[in-house]
Amino acid sequence: MSTLSIATAMQPTANPYAMPVRFDFSPDVATGEQVLAYAVAMSGFMLNYDANSDYWAEPVGRAAVSLVPNLVGNVVQVDGNVVLTDFNDDSARSTNGAAGNPVSGAQITAIALIDSSDDGAFVLGNAFGMPSGQSSPPITVAGNTANQVFIAGFSVQGQNGGNGSIAGLSVGSSVGEPIQQAVTVTGTVDVAEMTTTGSVDMGLLSVPAGGSPNFGVQPAAITWGAPNEGEGMLGNLSATFQVPAGQKIVAAALLLESVRIVYSDTAEIQQVSALQTGPLDVDGAAVTGQFRLNIYNPDFGARTYISSTSSASIFVIAQYR
User: Fold this and answer.
1) Domain coordinates of the chain in residue numbers?
2) Beta carbons of 65 and 140 less than 8 angstroms apart
3) What would the pLDDT profile of 44-66 be if each residue is shown by its tens digit?
4) CA angle, 7 as apex, 97 and 39 as ends, to 5°?
5) Is 121 left (phi over 0), alpha (psi -120 to 50) or beta?
6) 212: DSSP letter
7) Contact call for residues 44 and 255 (beta carbons, < 8 A)
8) Ramachandran region of residue 74, left (φ > 0), alpha (ψ -120 to 50) or beta?
9) What does the angle CA 247 – CA 248 – CA 253 come to, to the nearest 5 degrees?
10) Is residue 257 within 8 Å of 172, Cβ to Cβ?
């Protein structure tokens, strides 16, 4: 029977723009098996300006997270790139930026489908560069399946190279109901108070009825705290799984279905982020963790912070063994 293996990691801070993240699934591949399919998910991101002016915050021209996966044997290599620019020489902070300020990057999750042969029951993969609001071509799935969609990246920019103050950033993904054993996925990305063009990368995991004995996907229950100025808005998340007898959760990761980051005003930004805070904790059948949403302008006399209307829809995927 097909099994899933999952792994997650933050882009290396030593060189976040050029160093591939390697996910080696060899320990889960038995003799006669192989990685039949794979997908990547953007489990979180941080875009933080490295400004060249006397002020920290800048307008937004383009914001993007791009994950490019390749399979080599049993290893999924993911090249990650993040973009934040005002189209006027200011860009996302790298490790060469000022000490003490967080670098930009993405939390990357890789999912591998492992078996000796493909019977078509499971579908796993990515759709890249889908224009915002446009559905994908029909994707064939098996009958009576559960279909989970998740964000794998996004790109949004002001039309005609424009930039400006913003009122927030939203990225979302959705999957339609099966029609003649096919589904479509749709992504949306929007920067509030700007006229933009954009695209979304998505992943799809289609699982037959009854699922698999070695993994599960559950929606995360999230309790959000009050906004705390430049610290953003922290959420405590949890999900409980039905782990088969004799097994335990050996790995867990987040799948973002949608993120809506709302500013308390229309303003320039220093940072916009939606990021897991620390590792996920496993206690029996329960997975818990923290997730932070943030957007702010720290400039004196113009300080603007996140609104409590911000939100995220997050699923937790867990692997059993």
Assistant:
1) 3-320
2) no
3) 999 999 877 778 899 999 999 99
4) 95
5) alpha
6) B
7) no
8) alpha
9) 135
10) yes
